[in-house]
Amino acid sequence: MLAYEVIKAACQFSDNDALADKIMSGEDFDTSFTEEEKLTLTRYLECLNYLQEEVASEFKPLKTTEKFKTENFKIDFSVFKKTPLQILSVKDLKGGKVKFKVFPTYLMAFANEVEVTYGATPEKLDFDSPIEVDLPQRVLGYGVAREYYLRQGLTEDAEIWESRFKGSLKLILRKRAGTTLPRRRWL
User: Which of 10, 36, 130, 132 could be disulfide-bonded to 144 (CB atoms 3.0-4.6 Å)?
Assistant: First the structure.
């Protein structure tokens, strides 16, 4: 799923159907959109970037795994491919758990070579960038519409989309209990 697809959904949710149609028509952004439309799309993109960071930091972290060699049992956060939000696990190369401690600028892991799984900060999006957060387009559209209305000062409309966004997010993130049905017997 690409950023402009979520923005199109958010446009439809926030009564910007003409802009949503123009996005999906495939018209060239630089030549076909007016300055006002470009500004509106930029606002939607800012809302999507904010939402992606919110989801990754509060609800569903972007799990990333990397292998490192430690120097004096330290791994500087600057060598990570993405900015870590939280360290989820540290294992040795055989899969065994490794004790670790997080400091402001580095991770101390008590092994020479480790595999670190961490929740990462998502990359800033452009209009045709792929979305890193693994949520349905509709749910992301709810969140972008919420943020768009909130930034416009339309708090009542923002509350409506907030409730839809949070309700959908709760359903998606809810842990489903494994229900096992008894085997049927044939007569």
Answer: 10
